[in-house]
Amino acid sequence: MNKNRMIVLENVTKSYGEKAALQGISFDVENGELCVLIGPSGCGKSTTLKLINRMLEPDGGEILIEGRSVRDFKPELLRRKIGYVIQSIGLFPHMKVSQNIAVVPSLLKWERKRIGERVDYLLELVGLDPAIYRDKYPNELSGGEAQRIGVARALASDPPLLLMDEPFGAVDPLNREILQVEFLKIQRKLKKTVILVTHDLDEAIKLADKIVIMDMGRIVQIGQPENILSKPANSFVRNFVGTDRAIKRLSRFQVADYMNRASSTTIRRLKESNYKEAASRRESRFLWITDEMGILTGWIDFKNFKESDRLEEGITHVDPSNFAVRAEFTLKESLSRMLSQGVRSLPVTDEKNRLIGEINLSTIEKLTELEE
Ligand SMILES: Nc1ncnc2c1ncn2[C@@H]1O[C@H](COP(=O)(O)OP(=O)(O)OP(=O)(O)O)[C@@H](O)[C@H]1O
Ligand SMILES: [Mg+2]
């Protein structure tokens, strides 16, 4: 038994009456891994989660947590081990936010003081001010805030395992992205073992260490997002991930890992040197331009001017915060910026807009060459 395997499903089947919801699914999730279940509506995602935390019992097969069958866990122990974010949030409307978060700790009979501290800690963790939110009722929350409370509630007893059923499904795309990024930060800090269900492939690609693609009660492919996008197992997966899978795959790569050294100069240095001669010796027509502090101000194209006293004609001034990318950006974001700006390379700047490198279209093109 591999110790790292936190959850193992072996040939699990489940029917609702005549309807076979799961037709023998097997996969495992390692300790600290974020596994995303994805597939069309009705393929059995929610059923899978409910079997793991024993809201439902399987008809056949085995489900193990840390090597032990879930049937051997007492329900209250299972509840302590597993945080569950249910589809459509499911906050209790008549309970305050603090009481909603404290459901499991209360069941576990924690002391009142410990519960209060835990609630405040979790509200801060999900980015909500405890003083403002702890006494609100669910109908006083926006969709995104309610989702955050749902996540806080699932984390309440500090379970090693989180099951999340479309945790960000009910929020608009913009807030969904914010919640995804915040959840990733929380996950990097807490390193829970997570099974997250979603319909949204971009969400899966952004969050998953491993993706399990399901269709009609079966698993059609398991793999890292990169591999699923580059090598779809069959036409179902190929259709599911879509024709733009090469582009989607780029959101798995960060600028930091692919940027190159950038050549730059300053206006003063350009003026002092015989820049035309310098230009003729360079392989590149372009140089980034920074001020004396290294802050990006633009670029120079040596082809665009003839006379040495008309330096300005070759220079394009840019607003670094709109033009440059940051090391933590994804290559997908970089590519869309290149396309919208019509350039083949973009400067990479730090938080003070200082030039730290460049990212090139040729690098991105290489990464999108997929095996067919
Ligand atoms: N209580 C139930 N009684 C009968 N059939 C059910 C029940 N719950 C689910 N099903 C059926 O089992 C199948 C799997 O349902 P499940 O809820 O697991 O799907 P899902 O993948 O979570 O879908 P969605 O993305 O729409 O949430 C579906 O065909 C559904 O109609
Ligand atoms: Mg569901």
Written account of the structure:
The protein is α/β, with parallel strands linked by helices and 372 residues long. The chain has two domains: 5-252, Rossmann fold (3-Layer(aba) Sandwich); 256-368, Roll (CBS-domain). Helix content is 37%, strand content 25%. The protein is built from 18 helices and 17 strands. It has helices at 45-52, 75-81, 97-101, 103-107, 112-125, 130-133, 143-154, 173-190, 201-207, 225-230, 235-241, 245-249, 255-258, 267-272, 275-281, 320-323, 331-341, 361-368, and strands at residues 5-16, 19-30, 34-38, 60-65, 68-69, 82-85, 161-165, 193-198, 210-215, 218-223, 264-266, 286-290, 296-301, 315-317, 325-326, 345-349, 355-360. A six-stranded mixed β-sheet has the order 6-7-8-3-9-10, sandwiched between helices. The protein has a four-stranded antiparallel β-sheet with strand order 2-1-4-5, covered by helices on one side. A hairpin with a 2-residue loop joins strand 4 (60-65) and strand 5. Bound molecules: adenosine-5'-triphosphate and magnesium ion. Residues 16, 19, 21, 41-47, 87, 199 line the site of adenosine-5'-triphosphate (ATP).
Which regions contain 5 or more consecutive residues with pLDDT less than 50?
A: none
Considering the protein shown, what is the CATH homologous superfamily of the largest domain? P-loop containing nucleotide triphosphate hydrolases
**Category by helix and strand content:** alpha/beta
Number of strands: 17
Biggest sheet, spatial arrangement of strands: 6-7-8-3-9-10
Q: At CATH's second level, what is the architecture of the largest domain?
A: 3-Layer(aba) Sandwich
What is the highest CATH level, the class of the largest domain?
A: Alpha Beta
Percent of sequence in beta strands? 25-35%
**What is the number of domains?**
2
Average pLDDT for all residues? 87
Q: How would a crystallographer describe the biggest sheet? A: 6 strands, mixed
Assign the CATH topology of the largest domain. Rossmann fold
Q: Residue share in helices?
A: 25-40%
Continuous helix count: 18
Bulk shape: elongated
Radius of gyration: 26 Å
